[in-house]
Structures
1.
Amino acid sequence: MQKACQGIKKLKSVNLAFFVLCLMFMLFSANYANSQNLSRSELNAQIKASEDHARRLNVSVSELQSTQRIENESKRLDLVKVQSKDTYYLSAKDERVALK
């Protein structure tokens, strides 16, 4: 009878140790998943910021390439007068221009 009781006590302690081990593994897994989710969120935020920056740069490029700016700069530098009516687009795809 005593051997049976000791066997049951050992079995309970083994089950308890296994339960604690499983609980620690579950906590470790949840922590790892949360850290990966946080890293992914940070990377997505960086990607969005980079896309916004690229859009702002594209707007700046468009403004710097406008014919109005070219006219203003040529006036400021006393270069040959450029008029918008003399500007012809060679192709809409490449946005290349030529003066008459």
Note: Residues 2-64 form the longest helix (63 residues).
2.
Amino acid sequence: MRSYLSHVARPVEQPSRERREQALEAAGYNLFNIAAADVAIDLLTDSGTGTMSTDQWAAMLQGDEAYAGSRSFERFQEAVSEVTGFEHVVPVHQGRGGENVLYGALITEGEYVLNNTHFDTTRAHVANNGGHAIDCPIDAAVGGASDYPFKGNFDIATAREHVEEVGAENVSVVILTITNNSAAGQPVSVTNTREVAAFAADIDATFVIDACRFAENAFFVQERESDYADASIREIAREQLSYADAIVVSGKKDGLSNIGGFVAVADDPELFARVKQRTIMYEGFPTYGGLAGRDLDAMATGLREAVERPYLEHRIGQVRELAEKLSAAGLPVVEPVGGHAVYVKADQLLSHIPDEEFPGQALVCALYEEGGVRGVEIGSFAFPDTDRPEYVRLAVPRRTYHREHFDHVAETAAAVVERHEELTGFEIIGEPPIPELRHFSAELRPVE
């Protein structure tokens, strides 16, 4: 397995328990409102929080900051084509910028969008364009009880039921999220991808792959889908993405960069023209998309590194190691373990806290208060008015933490498990007007 040397080190101090308690109260018991300086181990997200390689830093020195037609864009375009197979690409500042550009070009008022499971910003962009987001996860994805190897798959039978209800003419987009973030980071098979593409074509809908973690998904395909055991990660990724009409990617995930993303379109000149015009309006000229040239070079290098098996073995290996340690500490984790994070069944540990009092939020607050570990709730607080499991996600930044950090997380978890019956739920005392994004800024208080 590959390992990494640390050429740059940043000291991290553990704030006192008193300081953590004060910070948590001042933040309205919302971990997004906690200052990074008050966090010891930050597992809030893996988006843009990883460590770039020496090759990526070296590539940044080549950055061409021309407004239009830079050499950095040419190198970036070449990397996207090489890794994904898509020739028509526009960069954006990050994944949600790509969602704004793409879904604004595809969705109109009253239309329906089907997804294996919408994540927060995807659901918000569908709603912002007047659409209705519908989740179509398979049964094995709900509750995390099954050891089915592709729990992230899209349930076509469920999707067809929705189509019969709303009419095929009203379904404009079908999305497949790989890996399936809301379903515990679980992978999607190539077979399912092919079937979803055929389904989308059958109802004349645009098929989009949300490919933020396409390389991690390809790793699981190689490991679990027998037809692809002898294929390379790059070959698997290119085939899986080839079934899409368009892809949207956050470069902050499998681009291995701290910022950036892109939208790529297959052979649809009209759609690509609309995407480029929206990029000019919201992101920047289509050859820089809100990014510095050096960021394009870093992302181009990262895309190529992401499809190297030794990197993915290390990446997935770290997540699995953390899961083993947390399970040994007494936390009920979702199995099989997904790609980018360990998901904890908060409602199983905190069965005395009803769902409407957000057991997941109770757990993330307890982990922070106990050991300065920041995670995020992925349940009814993050996804109101949806039937989601009460999960806590502990996302692992890429190439950043070491075994001693995971040991600290496990020790923190064990201490929380020991006193879990003392934990109480929460109630919301203030939230923003967009319900799909409330967990980013809402404030809570403990239930008396």
Note: DSSP finds 15 helices and 14 strands in the chain.
3.
Amino acid sequence: MSMKRELHHLGVKEIAQGLRHQRFRCEDIVHAYLTRIENLEPTIKAWAWFKPSDALERARELDRRQAGGAAGALLGVPVGVKDIIDVQAVPTGMGSAAFADYRPEKSARVVSKLEAAGALILGKTVTAELAYLTPGKTRNPWNPAHTPGGSSSGSAAAVAAYCVPAAIGTQTNGSVIRPAAFCGVVGYKPSAGLISRIGILMFSYTLDQVGIFTHDVADAAKVAAAIIGLAPEDGDSVSDFVLPPDLNPAPLFQPPKLAAVRSPVWSLADVDQQENFTQCVASFRKAGAAVDPVVLPEIFNQAHDIHRRIMYYEGARAFSVLQTQYPDRLSAPINRLIDEGKTISESTYHAALENRTRLQGELNELLQRYDAIITPPARGQAPASLEHTGDPTFCTIWTLCGTPAITIPSGLGAQGLPLGLQVIGAYLQDARLLQAAQWCAQRIGFRQDPPE
């Protein structure tokens, strides 16, 4: 196997270290990914936009910068960016005909931070329409007859297929965790407010959060560390928070204390997913972890309704102008969301926000007693359909509360598609969560790639 064919299997840290030690050039890395994309894109369709000549020119520029002594945590690392995130002068279609001609004049804050860290934006990844339900063209790399999940479809699929080592997505309900689980990769959604949303299509001011796709927990942490930071223009931005760029590769000094939560939607999980979760719990206990079965307080039975009211109320106000300007360019599902959201009264909306605060308090109290919560990330394997992106309901509570969450691959289901384990931490305790997730991933020991 040639060096260039091997390069596309390297992770974020391996690429950064290899470039730093001059074992290869950024141009070599980009050539490897462009070859991979050329071979797989006709089937997987993960990219909304990419231009090979531009990527190669940026790679050569980064090689020149490195030769001149430039440094950066992600210097030379290719990254895919979900197509609701502005990249200067690059088509940003939001998965919608309403944005067919949109080319932003300025990059989103998260893109600027990636580039400041030396990352190379390889291209724009496919999103569901306006980061909601209507799927884009992307297929699941494990089986192209199955959905990759959504709405960050292309980001998850591109990483799973080794067409890019890392990608950025967003989550308003389950749009990072679910596609990561369906595609068999790591999906990490940091605590709300840690990554700026400036320059990203706003669906729900309260709920929108930025996330990261990689092949392992340590790589997700490294990318996150480079893009976390205060953004004064974003009212929910958190100040004075630093995430260590490198996790301790050794296991925790002591096994973590975990809360095994069968949330109010547990009964919706497929048998494969329930059995896989039970096996994970057993393996953690065998490795010395304390794993307590925990039932969430009764108020969490309302969480999905609370989330829906907030999401629909804010989504209707975010997209009502689009509906007025381009009624024929929006799908039936997004039109229904806008119409329903307009019927939600201001008092109902504010009551939902108050209940969200209560839920956050209850969850924070629970997580004072544990290193992390473990729970399924989805109902099970990716559905055998390209008409919808699957059910986000296993992510709803954690997105609503703004807590950090990460999914790790945990096995295969009966149809040979990935299953995952979702790990949730306390708000702003991201380092602790990532260490617990890394410990869990090491104990599960699952690593398998899509068939070629």
Note: The first strand starts at residue 47 and ends at 49.
